[in-house]
Every structure is written in structure tokens, then in C-alpha cells.
Design goal:
This protein is mainly α. It contains 19 helices and 13 strands. The strands form 5 sheets. Strands 2-1-3 form a 3-stranded mixed β-sheet, with helices on one face. The protein has a 3-stranded mixed β-sheet with strand order 4-9-10, with no helix packed on it. A 3-stranded antiparallel β-sheet has the order 12-11-13. It is globular.
Length: 497
Amino acid sequence: MILSCQAISQQHIGFSFILMVTYMQLAVMCQSLIMNSNNDASQEKSNVLRLYIKYVANLKNAPVERSFYRWYSTGCRYISLVAGGSFYILVLIAGLELHKTISEVGGNIFSEVGQMLRQPETMTPKLIRDSVIPTIAWIRSQMPMSLQNLFCPSFTEHIGVGETLDCTNISLTDKVFGAFKQNTYSLPARDLAAWSSCTSTIAMPCRVMCQEGHIGGILGPALRNMECFLPPMPWQPNISVLKTSFKGDPSDNQGFPAKTNRRENIAWTEGERARAEAGYVVRDFEDLCNKLDNLYIDGRRKSELEGDAYVRIPMEVLQGGELELRNSDDSLLLFACSSLPDQICCNLTSSLLARFDGKEADPPIASSSEQVAENILLCPFQSLHFSLWNRYITSGGDAPPRIHPYDMVRTDVSHTNYSQHLPYPSRDILQHQQLYRNIQSSFEELFQWIEQVIKKCLPTEFEVLAQLAQDLPGGDVSPVFPFLSLVVNLNVSTLAH
């Protein structure tokens, strides 16, 4: 069954690829017919509407005009992306299951994306240079292919290329797909320095894709050798474990030291931030060990009057490894990891901004903690909780066993919420479904890496978390497994809580 599911998944990618190529073929065919008609002075000027009336409307089971226009438009979008990111960007889109999203987006955005891909120094240079281009280069090296008679001959002849289009030759594909008329500005010349990894010669022979052949059969052997669309990242933990004398039992360590009044809480939080910022900065790992030995008295953290209540640990102290602090009873106190790969780290900000409008807000300037409190109350930050709730569900401990839960009502309330009988998605997931899917897609590699780190470094804690996340209703899987919540804070100003 595992092999069957794997084969079906590969076929799904192949089908998505075929679908995108087919839309492109339709768009090229339409433009070729329009071009030939407009070059003939004896014929009336043509367009997509007239093409439909002349060639499509009278077909048996002809599609409606709106469907035909949508297919043509979708093909134009893929051509814009190919003109900017090479033919291999279609394989990336198919693997990330983005073809449906692309078909739903309107406007001139794809021409702009094509421009950014060719000239990545604008807008999101790190995301394109450090992630998109290396991925396309890797796919190109694993799947060299050429297209034979796949597009309308009159179109390729007009451009001046032969029957076979070598997809590994990025200059050639730029010439072909850049010549497609989009009623917008032509794409700028490609930054060959940024795309240098896609210009090298590949020794492996090209797989030939042709109109008569089955494209899925061409992709199949290559996809079987591609476990993912990025080379695996070798990673081994380098953990430093320190045991402290901190005890979780004393009431002093369990109380809430902050103020409960909202305005007072804000002022208290700002004061603690200032103290934390002025805390002792450890110089190296040995200094950290010595400082932790003196940080607690009888299992309690030193008070403000006893000095050095805060210790700051720069990431350089970890030297690219992980730090694990344990309580006196060996339970986990802190885990810090500084080994996030650069190829993930460098794209985090640009990936998040790309999910929203790309604008960063400057925080208002405040001269005192009272003014900070006033600013926060006037301009609260936005927080999105993409969670699978398992906390506020209706308890069924005393429910009669022979009655179906949907046939029961609670007598102590006016309304029985049947949607909260089992773990359920938060309101933000339901209200921002597209944003939720976009964030999952953009940060999937990060989430996988975090899961790998916790599994290797904290196996006991991982098993505890997994018990809550592995048995969701309907076989659902949390995208941030083993956690159940993904929280996005915008312009965050967290108060003590």
C-alpha cells in the first residue's frame, strides 16, 4: 500500500504537470492562429473571442465561452512563469500543488512575478536567489528534458527555433516563451549571474517529451528518484545539557508576579523588559555554567534585590549547537537551538511578508512606560491562532452510553454546541483558510525541520506532545506536528501572561 500511495502521489504531480503544459499549448495555439490571421491583410483582425466562435463553438460538446477564456488565461499565466523561471518551474509548481491557486489568481501579477524571477534584485531577492533558483537548478540537474513538437509549429518557426526545445538551455526557453504576447511589457533580460547555477552543461541525456508520447510516463522515472524538491539537509544534534537547582514546587516559583490590571500590567512588563535588557551577558559556556550555579537560592530564582535576576545568553555561546537546561528534578526548563540552516533562515521574513501585503509598520515612539501602555491600548497588535482546539470541548464523562451524542442536549445551558464535542479548528482557521494554506506551503520545510529537531533532541517530550496530536478526528494531521497550534503575531507587543 505504501508503494501504491507513493505511485499515486507521483502520478498526481505528473497529472498537474500535464495540465499546465496543456493549458500552455492551448494558449500558444490560440496566439499562433491570431498571429496568422492578423498577418493576412484579406482577413479580419482576430482575437480570442473570434477564435472561439470560429473554431470552438460548433464543436460537439463544445465548452462554454467562459471556460475557454479561463483555459486560455491560465495558459498565459503559466507561460509568464516559465518565461521568468524556466520550464522547470512547472515541476516545482506541480510538486507544491500550486497549480489550482495560480489558476484562481487574477490581474497582472504573473508578469510581475516573471520580472522578479529574471531580475531577482528587486522585491524578494533572498527568497528567489537563495531558495527558488537553487531549487530549479537542482530539478534541472535531476530531470534534463527537451520538448519535441509540443507547441504549435508555426509559433516556433516564427521565433526561429527548430522542432526540439532543450529545456536545460535557459537562453533558448527565454527566447521562445518570452516571445509570447501578453499585452503587457516584455520581460527584462535575465540576470545571468543570479541564474548561473542553471546555465551549466548537464552530462545526463535529456528525456524527450513529445505530443504523441505520454508526458506522465516521462516524468515517472524521474519523480521516483526525487523524494522532495530540495536536497536533504544532513543534520546531527550537538546538545549541551546543564542541570540547574531550580525547583518547580515552591509557591514562589508558581505565582504570577505581574499585575492583573491591564494598564498596570503593561507598565510592569516594560519595567521587566528593561531589567532583562540590562541583565548579565554571559561570555562563554563556562561563564554560563558558573552564572547558573549562582542564579538560584534553595531552588528559587534570585529576587531583584539580590541582583542579577536576569541572565542573557547570546547565540554565539551555543556555537551553532543546542542548549538544554534541566530543573533539579531533571524536567525540561529550557531548550534553545541555534542550528537552523541558512537556506531556511534567510527566507523567513520575506516568506512571511509575501503572505501579507509586504509592508512593515514602524512602532510609535514612546518616552515612558505609561506612554507605551497608552500606545498599546490604542493600537493593539493582531494575533492569528491557527489551532486545533482540544481544551474547551464538551465533556462526555457523565453522558449516557446508549444515546448518540448528537441526540443529547445540555440542560444547564441554553444551547448545546455539537461542534465542540471533539477537537475542532479555531475560528481563525475557518476565517482565513487561504492564508492558513499559504503559510503551511511557505514554511513547510521549517516545520519539518522543527519536528526533526524536537524528535532527536527531546525524544521524551516529543512523545508526550505526539500523544495529543496524532489522534485527531478524521485522521487530520497538524501542519506543525507535534504541536497543535500555529500562532502568527503581527506587530507583537506581548504582555506578561
